[in-house]
Amino acid sequence: MLSLGSGGAKSTKPSFVSYVTPEEIKSEKDPPKQEKHPDLLPGEVEFCSANPILKYTQDDLSQRGVFGTLFCTNFRVTFISDEKPQEKTDKTFKNKLYGENDIPLMCVDHIYGVYDEKRKLITGGLVKNKYPSKMIIHCKDLRVFQFSLTFSKEEDAKKVICLTSGIKCLCIWCWSHYSGCALFKASFPPNILTLMINAVAHNHLYSVKTEDLSESLPNIQDIQQSYNKFKQFFLIENSTDFWLSDVKWFSSLESSGWLDIIRQCLQKAVEVVECLEKDNTNVLITEEEGTDLCCVISSLAQIMLDPYYRTLMGFQSLVQKEWVAGCHAFLDRCNHLHQKDKEYHSPVFLLFLECVWQLVHQHSPAFQFSETYLTVLSDSVHVPVFSTFLFNSSHHRESVMKAESPLAQSGPLSCPTVWDWSVQFDSKAQNFFFNPLYLEKVKHDRAVRKPHKPKHQRNLSLPSTAFKTPPKKGFFKDETDSLKKMLRVKRLSRWRGSPDAPAATTREFFESWQHRPLDYHGLLLPCLDGPAVHIWMQRYLRWIPEVYILGGGSVAVMTKLMELLSQVQDLKRVLEQRDSSQAAKLDHRPYFQHRLLSFDSSGRLSSSFPFAYTCYRSFKPIIPTGLMQSLMVTDSLASQEDEASSVVSFV
Fold it and tell me: A GO biological process this protein is involved in (predicted)?
């Protein structure tokens, strides 16, 4: 280094000289920064980060602040300053989970972006082409954070904004398989979902298969349009309309697309079941809202996998869990208020019941409830007496029910749930809700020691293996190790790719299941071939007299079976009463009294029973004259052709 004289001229004699390399000078001016990362909690995953981020101080109007890095994890948004930490002082009151610069995701209330000095609310994790220069976060605990994004990379800032604003929807657990994998549903936008899955896979936590139902299934508008076409064939105003539509009835029904949508939903549910049952892989199903087709597929998958949900109480708890508590918008989808805006109308819940009916029709002994129960449940959706199907969410229900109605004299509203069937039917009528063909699981004697069989987990919020973790290992450590061994190289797989590939593998999965011994209390899969998907005859034909079968149809079989079951139960009770040791173990199942069906002796019940009665009149179908003549002409020509062919064959 050269010194300068007082006059500013260079001195001929150098003073003390120190040789410093350019690298050393650069290191002195700009020392290398060590990457900082938050101290993650057990099971916490870092999704993305942005640097440098300027965190404004609220107590300074000059908009000064501190530079640092903004991180987003599956638990929080956290800011770590670039400045050297000051001497730590022991705080008397300190939260072990998050600090003053941490925002738990569920604590995020609103996120605003500043565009050219204008503040706009950011919702759903969606950031338009122009990203904001500033992000303001309002927290539910009344804290306010302001971050400048102008110094960081645009792509990094977009990721942080998308995840912070969109991750508040932190996927919902639906059901756990006994192998440790689980079924989840969420409403993440695709860009957020990709970021999260890549982060999870990178941290080797577990393998996840994802399916965006909005890409593989019809949307709610398509469902509505298809059902509108389908139901027109059952809204019969007179006999002439019925017989005219009868000529091309089946082809017209098929062209509506409703049966095909049912088939697609069952197909997708089988794919989910295959991943859980065969591949032992976690499954995450998503859509825009997460409360429509996600409810359909998750509910169907649980019915196929878990026999508990095939019982009456189990099925009702499933609907309550996945649909009512899952915030399906019954008010909008069912159009209870008769709004003109058709964008939100769609019979999604009826679509689910249609799929369940297909399972009941194909595997009747596996279900405790009958098709009459499903028909009554579909009717009850449109009865404005029950609070179950009247609102868009649990919050909506509570806010309306607790608020004092101006028309009410006695304070808050009080509406029964639809599951209180005594409001609509007496005990005798409720007997028709039970399937007499149901094959109840045999209860073994407690003295007989049975081999241990893992059970499905319904009441845990996480896979069961997560709760067996020793304290020294992380929250998901045991699950991670077991899944690593089980999945080995397979870390992450998607259902993207050839559209025929899932159908082919699902077909193999179904065929392998068919070769197993029949177990109505085990895995249950539907046949999805064209002829296997039927029309729900009881629901759609019960009000059309032209199709009534007097003294016949499914009602004849059902009533006879119920009579036989009643007699068997009577004999069983007599035998149990004779045995004093078994007197306290009387069967508490619904008692089907044959007195209930004594009026069937007249033989005038129709196939629409128990919804429509025709015992008061003798019905004879009347075919319109014009149509009759055309049919007779056609029949005459056919008979002439038959006679001609028979003469030729005789000669």
Answer: phosphatidylinositol dephosphorylation
